[in-house]
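Quick note —
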Amino acid sequence: MQKLNIKYNIFVPSFLKEMVIDFSLYSGLHYFNLNTDPRQNVEQNKRRFCMLSTINHIEISQVVDAFKHIAYEEIGITNIFPEPMFGNFIGVNLEGGSVHEHQDSRDVSGNIHLRFNFMIQKPDIGGNPIINGKEYWIDEGECWMNYASEWRHGSTPVHGSRERIVLSLGACVPENIVRDVLSKRIGWEH
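Predicted structure written out below.
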């Protein structure tokens, strides 16, 4: 099976990148909950997670939500619905941390759960996405699309003192739009 082209040439503006790093490592730590989602295989103190959609009263959440709409529109998707389970989030993996391989569900209307993921900070070693059993190399600053409800996905373990910080923008998109817009880019298999 040939690897998919999951990368897109969409970049987080430098001011937002700095905002996410500061929030993830310093100013917003009290918004991150360690080991709070029992569906994730989070090991003690190896992974932090912050659902920005649940704290929409702060500036970073509003800026990220505005950027989400810009990012999806840039690839031709204007008809998006909120992703109800995780929304927009920041994930931080520390030494030994990873995302276990899993597959999310579609929303109650059958819309496909998509995620635009941005590698805000690359760890010393590891932290690459795994999609359908294959590892993809993503450099710092790059982004990739994940059909979260259609593909098994996770990440390789982080090693070293530098954290992996990923900004993930979730949306639910009608299947016909995914087929028409995204199939031209990375292929639609159903």
